[in-house]
Amino acid sequence: MKGGNYSSFGTYSGISGSGNVGNGTGKMSLGKSIKMYLTIFILTTCIYMALYQYHISREPFAASEVVKPPLYIITPTYRRPEQLAELTRLGYTLKHVVNLLWLVIEDANKTNPLVGHTLDRIGVPYEYMVAPMPEKYKQTKKAKPRGVSNRNRGLEYLREHATEGVLYFADDDNTYDISIFEQMRYINKVAMWPVGLVTKTGVSSPIIQEGKLVGYYDGWIGGRKYPVDMAGFAVSVKFLKERPDAQMPFKPGYEEDGFLRSLAPLDDAEIELLADECRDILTWHTQTKKNAPGQALNRTRYKNTNLEHIDRLLVRP
Question: How many angstroms separate the CA atoms of 216 and 129, rounded?
Fold first, then answer.
């Protein structure tokens, strides 16, 4: 019995209990298993990545990678207390729109560093230029054609530098739903849409019946062929360049009409109707309340305070 027991014990110990011999065999087996699983995992991953890359190469560009037609936003501006605030508000709207160049054109003889600093801070691609109103219009006691020289300077820039895309006159005191920018981006010639908060009617809009342009609804028609608001139309750059004489007239109240007339020949059937065929309002003729210029800072009383820095940021006539 003792011999048998010894023999049995020795056989048992030889398999798993004789110290390093049994443990080494187990570790080697475990190591081989881990290497095998790692190899399978790496090969599977490589095959998956290769198939994924092939799949991607066969697909068209994602929508975000498609280069959209450019937009050229022409914004007249002039020196006043609200100037920087209104440019800031419009600028951060435009910042949500891709492939856009903002043409900010000031009615002045030289650029204003405060305006340039504001545009830099907003970060929208821009060109900042000046286009003063001709002196003969400044001296008149009648209504002045504000913004005309600015917009015509913008048209001149486009004729020199642009080949495609769409131009839009966006005043800095209006309000815009960014969807209108994406809609106008693809027009062929001229597009129109309603503008809210205009005159006594509360809206200026083309009149659409059975999908066709049949007239215009506006609080003041004034014998105009195109009684529309400045914020209610856009024009193809290519279409503009085919009409080298097209420009905005220095005629208060008739700027939009005169410019659209200068784009002739233009048939009503060629005018595209945006904003759900003119059934929605995506732009508003909001106007900021006029503010009196800030009174002069008492620099003796407030010397070496933050007010000295803030005072430099105020736009005064």
Answer: 34
